[in-house]
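Pair request: fold both.
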Amino acid sequence: MAIVTKKNRAESNTNYAQGGIAAVTSKEDSFELHVRDTLAAGAGLCNEAVVRQIVSEGPARIAELIELGMNFSERDDPANGRRELDLGKEGGHSKRRILHAKDVTGREIERALLNAIAQQPNIEIFENHLAIDLITSQKLGYVGANRCLGAYVFDKKSGNVETFAAPVTLLATGGCGKVYLYTTNPDIATGDGVAMAYRAGAAVADMEFIQFHPTCLFHPKAKSFLVSEAVRGEGGVLKTVEGREFMDEYHPLKSLAPRDIVARAIDTEMKKSGADCVFLDITHKPAKFIIERFPNIYQTCLGYGMDITREPIPVVPAAHYQCGGVVTNVDGETEIAGLYAVGEVACTGLHGANRLASNSLLEAIVCAHRAAETAFRTPHSAFPTPEIPAWQSGDAHNPDEMVVVSHNWDEIRRLMWDYVGIVRTNKRLQRAQARLANLQLEIQEYYWDFIVNSDLLELRNIATVAELIVASALQRPESRGLNYNLDYPAANPEWAQRDTVLRKSS
């Protein structure tokens, strides 16, 4: 078994997840409440059967993580004198159900899973390897149903392209935050899995629903640092630069409203005042509590000269999570035999038009487990693997003007932020679509003329994903969840339970 990762083995979106995993583990909570909260956040677009399946299987997967060595934060239970899981609360949740490891939950999950992998001699990790394209029977010219046969992979150290043949290929490539100028995502989040699956012929759905996290640290030297929603869950309040609380004007849950509402409210307040940011204030809580509950956020802000126990945190919205993705069932199966997708790259129907906080890690652990079980019991070996030709570079030569790549990269991210951001219009979307079409021509010409490198491959992918986001947004004639269009300010009942599905034309 091979794990291909384009940087080091711990570098992933999961590694940066602060908040936690939403799961029903308290007697005061119930599956029905968690389902209800998820459906409400999803704004009428969730697949209820999928929601119920994933929510109900959450506790078993949490127990499995603990067995693998995951250390969730605990607290003293005065009622029985024992330690119990410390459950946090985040926007849109009616109960405390967020299991966390202080404010570095993703990092702790990565540690536990990588330690478990280290005990398995049959698993090999290929670091600094970037997948270029999926290999399919259809691309090779074989008749019959399309089947994934593996992937062509670029070795960043050697500069060679290697062939990874496999009866089962699973995409766990995360999201596409780097498509936008401002994002909470790490540099690796360039939508590679969505772009590759789309090029291979798989269906992609609901890409218009890009979640903008309301609270990214605003500081000239801070790069993409997320201030967890858990800060608001523990009593943090959003305020204008003048110190006025404003969320009560937008939603009954105030600062704990669903993320799309909070992000739009912040965007509105910033535009009204001309301010560069708003502030998240938790200074009314004891300093000891803040430091113990949010050690990573406290230390990071302190490094930038801000003591969050004494002063509010300057924050702005930033692209955070893609709710759409490669169409899969709850077992991670795509339309292409032998190709699976789990986590943020996949669109299972759990999130609908807006992800409920901390449901992402829940989806990842449940669907990854189900995908593994499905793959192992499916007789993929019954399908003979055809001979796969080696990668052909043809007459391509080393690029002599990388400024073309960096310029196109910057232009895509800027136009996506300006035209396809938190608030959209048809005119802006059409402008973005026209410019992206021209950029695609430039990128494709560059791609075929020059030997591949990681910057060019990632540029190719963000351009593809940007086009998918714009095309999906133009298809949906309404405002729903994360897709807010001033030309269609209301939800359209005809588009409830209706996905935007895109497939590459042959």
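--- second member of the pair ---
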Amino acid sequence: MELDFIDNVNEFGESVVRLYNFDKSEAIQLRDLIIQTIILKKQRLDLSSLEFIEPRNCNLIFGLFKTDEGILSSDNQTFYCALTLEGYMNMLKLIEPFCHKNTKGHQYLYDIDNPIDFLFSPAGTW
């Protein structure tokens, strides 16, 4: 699984943090870590510390927040995914289909009015 940031993906100046190039087993690993670390332990999850994720040009840290803010960054290198517990529960539902079979589909992991989208895409495309 690889992690990167793509700036200005459209005419609106929006950007994407992307988790891509993965299979079913890596989707399962990520799902399970979100459950164990965020949902159950209420702790932050630093994706750069995970063996199965290769950060390309950025890092992403998941953390619990009082409101769903989405992905935020001040330097376009370190990103924070600030979601409520409910936001992460919804993210788990969106990841779940990728845990049952290998697919070339993709999914945005939240629907928040935020200039940075979060793309989950085995093939890296959208």
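Observation on the second member. Helices lie at 24-40, 85-95.
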